[in-house]
Structures are given as structure tokens and as C-alpha cells.
Amino acid sequence: MTETLFALVSSYGLWVVAASAFLSCLALPIPTSAVMLGAGAFAASGDFVLWHVLAIAWGAAVLGDQTGFQIGRWGGPLLLERLSRSSSRARLIARARATVRQHGSIGVFLSTWLLAPLGPWVNLIAGAARLPRGRFTFWDALGEAIWVVIYVGLGYAFAARLDALTKIVAEWSGLVFALGLGLGTAAVLVQRIRRRYPTQ
């Protein structure tokens, strides 16, 4: 699968990078992190220009998030109810809803890079919850910049070990997601305890 993705990036260039970044923001199961790593490696070998890769990946990701946000504004709760009929989606949507409700704009920011599997659902829920577009755009653009720089930068820095890096990142992404959820839950618990038992 990874070799096929790298072949597509090699053949079709930045179009694949843009399409991958955009579509993954709409919850399509595309291994975009591998595409970003590959694009970074191609930039290191001189096939792409690094700033072109960064700009296109970032722009496509932000556009994808804006599309999800707008769909949430149009479809709202009815759309989320239909999407929640799948149990795996229902769990992600419930976590995304909690992220937006508890953290608002910061939740949008974290969902673009630290809690990336929640990202598409956070976009929909933020739109449905009528989060102000300006706030959404600012935090989303900032988070996507971090995500793009991390993955493209890793591919650029470790181009010679791309296959090994892709496997490590795939495992690491799941670990980071789990740790992020754990830390977020812990922070919410601490806040609730402080509200219930305020210090004198």
C-alpha cells in the first residue's frame, strides 16, 4: 500500500499531495501521513521544491477542514445523527463533540495534529455548533501548519530511511492519539475536581 502511494506521488506529484490532504479532512480513509512523508522525501531528493510541498499540503488541508465545517453548518445535527449509526463512527463523533464542547477553539487546534483521527468530526461538529468561522479558521490553520511541517519535515530529514520511518510513524500516530486522549481526559477531571472542591 505504501509503495503504491509513493508511486502515485512520484507519477502525479503535488496533485496527489493536495487531494490526499483535502480528502482525509472529510473522513476518507487515506493514509495522508505516508503521502506527506513521501512528498518530503521527494523534496529532499530534489524532485519537488520543499516550500511548494508545504504550501500545497497546508492549503489543501485547510480547505478540506473548511469544507467539513461548512457541511456541518448546512447539515447540522441531522447529518451527525445519520453518521453516528455506525458504532465506530459514533465513538469518534462522541469524542469529537466532547472536544468541541469542553475546549472550543483549542479543541479544533488539537484535532488537526495531536488528535488527528478526530479532525474531520470536530470540523463537522464545530460547524453544527456554530463556532465562529474566524476562530475556527485561525486555530485550524495554525494546527494544520504544525501537522504539515511535522510530517513533511520528517520525510525530508529521513528520506534515506523512508520505509522504516513510515512504519514507525504509523505506530507512533496511534500512540500519540491515545496519549492525547488520556491527557485531555485527565485535564477535564482535574478541572471538575477543582470546581467541586475549590481551595480555600
TrEMBL record:
Localization (cell): Cell membrane
Predominant cellular place of this UniProt entry's protein: membrane
Cell membrane found in the keyword field: yes
Keyword Cell membrane: yes
Top-rank lineage group of the source organism: Bacteria
Keywords attached to this entry: Cell membrane, Membrane, Transmembrane, Transmembrane helix
Membrane topology: Multi-pass membrane protein
Transmembrane segments: 12-30, 37-61, 106-126, 138-160, 172-190
Domain VTT: 30-156
Protein name (Swiss-Prot/TrEMBL): VTT domain-containing protein
Source organism of this protein record: Roseinatronobacter domitianus
